[in-house]
Structure to design on (150 residues):
């Protein structure tokens, strides 16, 4: 059964790759399609180059988050999770922290989009409720490229 899911995802990726008209993004996968493919492939991820309009962002001391939707809990959201070393390298090249410099921009991100379970907690204690988010982890600044402004 797993080979059927892998085959179906592969066929979908092949069809999606030809759908874009820009040579720069001809083989990229939209953020909405990334969520669909990651859900279909779960618990495995989907590797590729993803194109995304950054509509939301947030930075913590350890991680920077970029979101394709204003509400990061939206089921259609693709969350780019940038590790601290990658965020620091991006800040040098962008001239500002990535959460600020990339908000409102269109980016290409190379990596693996995965469906991740996010647990709700109250005062640090899990409450038993959760939701799923599609995430793509960035550990190297070279995984992200600017395309243009929204």
């Amino acid at each position: 059964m797993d080979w059927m899911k892998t085959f179906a995802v592969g066929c979908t990726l092949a069809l999606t790759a030809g759908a874009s008209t820009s040579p720069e993004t001809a083989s990229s996968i939209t953020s909405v399609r990334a969520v669909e493919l990651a859900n279909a492939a779960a618990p495995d991820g989907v590797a590729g180059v993803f194109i995304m309009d950054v509509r939301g962002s947030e930075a913590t001391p350890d991680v920077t988050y970029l979101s394709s939707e204003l509400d990061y809990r939206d089921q259609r959201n693709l969350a780019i999770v940038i590790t601290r070393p990658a965020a620091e390298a991006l800040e040098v090249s962008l001239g500002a922290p990535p959460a600020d410099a990339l908000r409102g921009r269109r980016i290409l991100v190379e990596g693996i989009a995965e469906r991740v379970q996010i647990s709700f907690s109250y005062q640090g204690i899990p409450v038993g409720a959760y939701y799923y988010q599609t995430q793509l982890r960035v550990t190297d600044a070279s995984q992200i490229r600017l395309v243009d402004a929204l």
